[in-house]
Design brief:
Elements (H helix, E strand, L loop, with lengths): L1 H15 L25 H16 L2 E3 L4 E2 L13 H11 L5 E5 L7 E5 L1 H10 L3 E6 L3 H15 L4 H13 L4 H8 L3 H13 L2 H7 L7 H14 L4 H7 L6 H26 L2 E3 L3 E3 L2 E8 L2 E6 L5 H23 L6
Parallel strand pairs: 2-4, 3-5
Antiparallel strand pairs: 1-5, 3-4, 6-8, 7-8, 8-9
Helix pairs in contact: 1-2, 3-4, 6-8, 8-10, 10-12
Length: 333
């Protein structure tokens, strides 16, 4: 008879979780603490456990106000294509459930694992979202996020790069990351170098850029390494005000290189160039031009080249005379 009671209860639960799902209140997170033993019969307690387990496996309707965002994400902009998704859900309903995990502490009861755009669409429509709810640690949540989005979505190069570093921070090894992102180790190395050498603030300012391949991002990294521009605020100021991420990225690369060349030119111009007053030889001018340890003798008449030859012949004598005066304590001007 007890078996019949359990089967009947399970049958009723199956009927209750049909497409006509209603707003549900999932069980609270499991808290590791001592509780009093149930006062009811063991068979009823066992049945309750089975029902709770079945309930946790079924999709439930959840108020979007009970869902908090999470730092565990692999996409920059969830608003991309959101209007189309809103129209689709409004016309045909939500086809795929999102995945939530229980939160600890005060505030919303749940935290999104994947399905941010679906949650955002339901929030705009003012309707509950159909969701699976799990008890998950951050590492497990990251694995679920990586697998679900790798199967359904095409991340941009830079989204892959940032997410790869996030997986590395949580202790995933290279083989695991390659498997989760469906990339080889060469590609993973390129992803890692860009995400490491380009400040995240600059990446977020430019945007995901789904039409940007790896080459422009590698060019930006190369420009940063060659020019030594490391100040994040300075780089952010260089990003042009462009809605198109590709134009913004290319504009930043051009600005970095142009600014660096300009600085080098300014340094060269700033170097002191001392020009002597024209020195007269007879009635013909001779000019001495000193610049960065060099001296140039300029003449305007062919015969004055004899004077240059004279200096060449007597250069050692002139230098010795100068050295003697310096040794004697005289300051040579």
């Amino acid at each position: 008879m007890r078996r019949d009671l359990l089967a009947k209860s399970l049958s009723q639960l199956s009927e209750a979780s049909s497409p006509s799902e209603t707003l549900a209140q999932p069980p609270s997170p499991i808290v590791q603490e001592k509780t009093k033993a149930p006062s009811g019969p063991r068979s009823l307690q066992a049945m309750s456990n089975v029902l709770s387990q079945v309930s946790s496996q079924a999709a439930q309707m959840v108020d979007t106000r009970e869902i908090a965002d999470s730092a565990l994400q692999d996409r920059f902009d969830t608003s991309d294509g959101l209007d189309d998704l809103i129209a689709s859900i409004q016309a045909s309903g939500q086809e795929l459930p999102v995945l939530l995990r229980y939160r600890r502490g005060a505030g919303q009861r749940y935290e999104v694992v994947y399905g941010r755009r679906r949650i955002a669409a339901c929030r705009e429509l003012g309707i509950p979202v159909r969701a699976l709810i799990r008890e998950m640690e951050e590492r497990d949540a990251l694995m679920s996020l990586a697998r679900e989005n790798s199967a359904r979505l095409q991340r941009s190069f830079i989204e892959q790069a940032v997410f790869a570093t996030r997986l590395d921070e949580y202790g995933f090894d290279k083989d695991e990351i390659c498997g989760l992102l469906a990339v080889d180790k060469t590609t993973l190395s390129r992803l890692a170098t860009v995400a490491r050498d380009v400040p995240i603030e600059v990446i977020e300012r430019i945007g995901s850029g789904h039409d940007i391949g790896r080459r422009p991002w590698l060019d930006l990294r190369k420009a940063l390494k060659e020019t030594g521009v490391l100040d994040t605020n300075k780089l952010l100021a260089m990003v042009p005000d462009e809605e198109d991420p590709l134009k913004a990225l290319q504009g930043l690369i051009d600005t970095i290189r142009t600014a660096t060349l300009s600085e080098e030119t300014q340094q060269q111009v700033a170097a002191p160039v001392r020009r002597s007053e024209p020195l007269t030889v007879g009635d013909k001018p001779v000019r001495f031009v000193k610049k960065r340890g060099k001296i140039t003798i300029e003449t305007t008449e062919e015969y004055a080249t004899d004077f240059i030859e004279y200096l060449e012949d007597h250069l050692l004598q002139i230098f010795d005379s100068w050295s003697s005066e310096l040794a004697g304590g005289q300051k040579v001007k």
